[in-house]
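Me: I keep going back and forth on a fold encoding question. No explanation is needed for now; the record alone will do.

Assistant:
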Amino acid sequence: MQAPNKSELHILVDDFLEYLVVEKSLSVLTVRNYRHYLSRFLSWMENKPVPLLHANINIELIGQFRIYLANLRDKNNSLLKKATQTYHVIALRSFLRYLITRRDIPVLNPDKIDLPRNDSRVIEFLNTEQLTRLLNSPEISNEIGLRDKVILELFFSTGLRVSELTKLNRDQINLETREFSVKGKGSKVRLVFVSDTAAEWIKRYLAVRQDSYRPLFIRYSRDRSEAKQGEKMRLTPRSVERIVRKYSKKCGLPFDAHPHTLRHSFATDLLIQGADLRSVQEMLGHESIRTTQVYTHVTNRHLKEVYQKYHSRK
């Protein structure tokens, strides 16, 4: 039952977020982001002299909200990045489209809301030397360090998203065939391949595990409850992000690496070695080839380096 003091728009946003979870099977992180962007819009709208009703969402109101976002500062007193502003607009468009297509509610056509043009997306990836330093940074003489080593190796070996990696169970990966299936965004299932090196590290890690917990990657604490096959012990995406950032600082990378940095490195390495874009799209689990094409800017720069290094007429 909805809270009686909630506005119409608050109730509709809650319904939309539930739809994203139940019917669209979006990740917890994605839904959390949608909630954040739409909550910011509702909070801003509450200070406007209009009731919180879907009928009051028009082009003029959206334009005012975008001006607000352009001047909004984050906790570090920095203006919001253009990409972050775009995410707010995307969330609004998705919400309006849901109202039209799923609830038959007449609202502003989301196609009338243009997405801002962002500067070319900057892809951070690791070169061979940086990657080697990062992968060799965990201290593998203890179980925690060995776990962290496997996390880093598996990220680069597979290009998994952090949410996909943390959902892995120890019996999910076939270490003989070096492959397994994973359910990614939108419940799309894809085949994932594991390198020989990563497979060997997984074997070493599992060989020292003294527990029967189901998750492949667990946290280490005094609370070793067996409830739900050790679900309470499963590493969270946020914990894995901290682990990657910890080792990126330890090995002296010029920027803070995160799980997606290793995903970028995986894709870039494949393309530089000659893989075709369609195959990389499938391995990354991208729904559209346009998402994968962002990596061509990186590989184009690599081609220029090759040209300058090897062409006889420099």
Notes: Residues 8-112 form a domain with the DNA polymerase; domain 1 fold (CATH 1.10.150). The mean pLDDT is 88.
